[in-house]
Amino acid sequence: MLQRLIIKNYAIIDHLEVDFSGNLNVITGETGAGKSILLGALSLILGERADPGVLFNKEEKCYVEGVFTFKDRQVSVFLNEHELDVEDQLIIRREISAAGKSRAFVNDTPVNISQLSALSQYLVDLHQQFDTLELGNAEFQREVIDALAKPAELQQYQQLFQQYLQVQKKYKELFDSRDVANKELDYNKFLLDELTEADFKENEIEDLDNELQVLSHAEEIKNTLSRVYFQLKEDEQPILQQLKQMQSSLQTIASYHKDVPAVAERMQSLYIELQDIAGDIDRISDQVQFDGARIEQVNERMAMGYRFFKKHGVQTTAELLEIKAALEQKVSSVLNLDEELAALEQQQAELKSRLQELATGITAARTTAAQPFEKKVNELLAQVGMPNARMKVDIASGELNAYGQDTIDLLFDANKSNQFAPVGKVASGGELSRIMLCVKSLVAKSVHLPTLIFDEIDTGISGEAAKQVGVILKDLAREHQIICITHQPQIAGKADAHYFVYKDAAADKVRTSVRLLTLEERISKIAQMLSGEKPTAAALENAREMVR
């Protein structure tokens, strides 16, 4: 519920504070006095875009604040989800700087406009004159019926429908990719077959290069190794024999000098190491053999490897094997696509079957709700001066969509002709206003929306019809806060709180002001609405009767 609205420096409002009642609040005033300006300011804290041109004083910022109370748990959930303070009161503030920059706050925490707009849906339903066009909107018509039907399956259906769309999207992407992949499959398979037949092992080409070096220089390697081995062990005075003699000589003087034993020990270690080296040289020499046939084989294998290096733009066997693995993956993926597509197709069929099952339940709930809705709307239409008007709900099955399988149309017949047509196409402006009031009065009882605001819902009506609109608004105000801008005295007479909007001039500037009328002021203003600026005694008595 909107408790207080504070407006500063907006349009022709300098500073204004309005405290609203929790029931039927009526706002009246002369045309152009600024009644709709109040709603324009209110729309700012409900998430509408800000226009810097609305500043009353171009050098100061505009400030609009609304103080709300709420009982709806969804508001608390929203505040928690967006990390906003949950307090007894909800204070929403909007500021527009002189430079045109807009800022919004909820309980003094900055928020963006989309958050503000989302929050307002739990607080206020703002109906302005042009909103009657929504009656012709298919989405609005479905929302009306669903608000009354409350189909239990709808939430589960919508979750499944999102899964269904995701599976459809994945199927299409996979199907399209298969067409592209199939075009590349033959070439990739040819490349893979080449590499598979070549059957290169890890580091094979690098190892072959090393082997070729050995084979190509086998004679030189063998001669060098033989010469070194001969010098170490088989020469006239082999190096190893000389080392052994030297080590023995050192041993003879080891007892004469404290450092000699250590040198002798090192000489012994050197002798042992050279013996090992001689053995390794002999072994390596035995392994090295010139093999012309093997050289030819290695050259052929390396030539093949380098051809593949050049073809695939790589420099190592490891990179070539990575390309082979990638090709295997591509070929395997294409070959498995048909299986994946078949699985997705099966998944789509299962989801669609479940969706159709749920959609049937949703249709049943809507159909059940449609008949009492028609009856109540038609009763209310008669009450507001349209006794010959009839409304009918047409529910037709179609393709699955985000809300089921139904196409819902509100059809209207103004003259009991049984010639029903879409309401948005055949109803006049005045008729649309009254139809919208009747529809919203029914929906409001099924939706947790504390505040409903009507801007001149009485357009195109007067007399008894206006009186009945007032009766409907009064009835709605038993469970909802209603704020209504009106020109009709019959509606103003039903108010629990009557606010009068007027202009005054000060310092060469025209300002809009609002005041809550006393009982006698109400009677006087309603009488003026009935008979003019100087109301007659009869008008005053009539006004007094309306207020009673």
TrEMBL record:
<keyword id="KW-0067">ATP-binding</keyword>
<feature type="coiled-coil region">
    <location>
        <begin position="191"/>
        <end position="218"/>
    </location>
</feature>
<dbReference type="GO" id="GO:0006281">
    <property type="term" value="P:DNA repair"/>
</dbReference>
<keyword id="KW-0547">Nucleotide-binding</keyword>
<dbReference type="InterPro" id="IPR003395">
    <property type="entry name" value="RecF/RecN/SMC_N"/>
</dbReference>
<dbReference type="Pfam" id="PF02463">
    <property type="entry name" value="SMC_N"/>
</dbReference>
<keyword id="KW-0227">DNA damage</keyword>
<comment type="similarity">
    <text>Belongs to the RecN family.</text>
</comment>
<dbReference type="GO" id="GO:0006310">
    <property type="term" value="P:DNA recombination"/>
</dbReference>
<keyword id="KW-0234">DNA repair</keyword>
<protein>
    <recommendedName>
        <fullName>DNA repair protein RecN</fullName>
    </recommendedName>
</protein>
<keyword id="KW-0175">Coiled coil</keyword>
<comment type="function">
    <text>May be involved in recombinational repair of damaged DNA.</text>
</comment>
<feature type="domain" description="RecF/RecN/SMC N-terminal">
    <location>
        <begin position="1"/>
        <end position="503"/>
    </location>
</feature>
<dbReference type="GO" id="GO:0005524">
    <property type="term" value="F:ATP binding"/>
</dbReference>
<dbReference type="GO" id="GO:0009432">
    <property type="term" value="P:SOS response"/>
</dbReference>
<feature type="coiled-coil region">
    <location>
        <begin position="327"/>
        <end position="361"/>
    </location>
</feature>
<dbReference type="GO" id="GO:0043590">
    <property type="term" value="C:bacterial nucleoid"/>
</dbReference>
<dbReference type="InterPro" id="IPR004604">
    <property type="entry name" value="DNA_recomb/repair_RecN"/>
</dbReference>
<dbReference type="InterPro" id="IPR027417">
    <property type="entry name" value="P-loop_NTPase"/>
</dbReference>
